[in-house]
Amino acid sequence: MVVKLLHTADWQLGLKLRFITGETAARLRAQRFDTIRRIAEIAHEAGVDLVVVAGDVFDDNGVGGDTLQQAADALRTFGTIPVLLIPGNHDPGTPDSALQRMPRLEHVHVATEREVLHLGGVQVYPCPLTRRHERDDPTAWLPAREPEDGIRIAVAHGGAIAFGESTETPNLIDVPAVISKGFDYLALGDWHGVYRVNERAWYSGAHEATRFKEQTPGHVLLVDIDGPGALPRVEQVPVARSRWLRHAVEFHDDAQVRELEDWLEALLERSWTLLELELSGQLSLSARARLDQLLDEHGERLAYLRFTDEVLAEPTEADLEQMSGEGFIGEVVDTLRAGETPEDRDALRLLHRLMQGAD
Ligand SMILES: [Mn+2]
After folding, report:
1. How close is the Cα of 271 to the center of ligand 1, in Å?
2. Domain end marker among 238, 260, 280
3. How many A from CA of 59 to the centre of ligand 1?
4. pLDDT tens per residue, range 15-56
5. What does the alpha-carbon distance between residue 173 and residue 127 come to, in Å, rounded to a whole number?
6. pTM of the prediction?
7. In terms of CB atoms within 10 Å, which of 116, 245, 303, 308 comes out highest?
């Protein structure tokens, strides 16, 4: 008896992405549904017996009917493959549960109770969250293996104690305790990157990232289990369309602006790339001006760009030669050159930029 499982989690459908303005947020919100369709293709190609979504299917229980319908339409593409959804901390199984309001589909099972289900030839033990923060371990109810049991899979949403968080943290899951009860695989959700807790317990991570700080989001896991007690074979499959990147540059040489330009030009699918740049160090005024141009240009070409900017612009002799002039501007430049405050340097930089623009 071999079972093939597709494990995913943290879809957070209806995610607001309030920090992103304009059409891009709507495009990224829509992509979260399209990536489910991609996951369904992978499930069909791999011939999986069961799909488990380990919580936080929706971003919150207040999502509108349009989000619920789009979710149901995307889930329909799994065809007859059974899909198990469990409530997480974003969409707990409270009376206003979004999962309960979603249009019903025959192959989609919403776990509301802590009880064993038989899906795709597997004994599945969902551990739904019934409120946003459970004080008790949501896996505590799981029964130990009986001799007649087949392949057993538990599905839960919360923090593995292995992360070393304080025991005051809600939704904590004692992973070794679950495995010691004779589970072949524990499908976890809540952590947004792929993370192997141990050989039988994994986080799949989110299908599309939600924040820059997430480690290896954008995957699903294909899990093969040859029989009760066999170690699962886990394959990590990339699915995300959006790419969330972080990049840091500490400038100490003007040539690094050109290197940053090359790096930006080498990015694939810029319209799907969100970038967080951390810029520090020191540049000449002319290189600083070129950097500002680059940031303006790529701010428009990327899906999203934000940056921390701690780059000091120090006028070089070449910069100042270029700026020296006659009349009022010449006097201002001389005054600013003589000044030593950061404001003087900022004013010189702005003036330099204005003079460049006036060419
Ligand atoms: Mn969560």
Report:
1. 28
2. 238
3. 9
4. 999 999 888 999 999 999 999 999 999 999 999 999 999 999
5. 10
6. 0.89
7. 303
